[in-house]
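User: quick one - fold this with pyridoxal-5'-phosphate bound?
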Amino acid sequence: MENICKKLQEIKCNIKACAQRCGRDYNEITLVAVSKRQSIDKIKEAILCQHKIFGENYLQEAKEKREQLKDYKDISFHCIGHIQSNKAKIAVATFDVIETVDRIKLARLIDRHCNELDKKIKILIQVNIGREPQKHGVLPEESEQLIREITEETNLEISGLMTIPPLTKSSPEKRHYFREMKQLANNLSEKNLFKNKTKVELSMGMSSDYQIAIEEGATIVRVGTAIFGARD
Ligand SMILES: *Cc1c(COP(=O)(O)O)cnc(C)c1O
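Assistant: Sure. Structure tokens for the protein plus pyridoxal-5'-phosphate:
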């Protein structure tokens, strides 16, 4: 219990210091506590320490956790894992933010289920910034086209971009990818492609590199093991 509180505090302190160092407003940075494959008790501990925003990758697991946490009213869940099209409905029912929209078909389905369930959710576009063949996400050069299609065909509001850069890369290489993401977000924002031009979300950075990501403009960092310890 103490431990998770302490870790959360430590990370929030680091985020604050990091924001200060690079002249950014700490309040514009959201910490998503990635709770995938962590126990429900650990999540409850984080909630007791006033943390309210969680990230999950696997739909069935997230759905079960949501049910187990239904007494906690003001918590929110971000989807940070790949969504198969036939699972779009559960995703909409389970999450408040879907960070991993990477194709028009999925966006159409999310939009349809939002209408059916009378639910509003935020979406981010997942970009495959490292152009890795095995990875999900739209290629950077195809992101504008995808956003235009989503805007024309659906009522979804696109809050910004999300990325998972190549895992084995060194810090300078990660920084390079984060910087490319920031530039892409700026370019798209100048074309008025996001819901709120003054606050374009940029979700990037995990336990090992969230400070680099903040230095390069992240507004959402997704931190798992540095808060909860090793996953089951
Ligand atoms: C698991 C995961 C994280 C958290 O990773 P840690 O290294 O545990 O901080 C962040 N983002 C995504 C997309 C993940 O799948």
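One thing worth noting: DSSP finds nine helices and eight strands in the chain.
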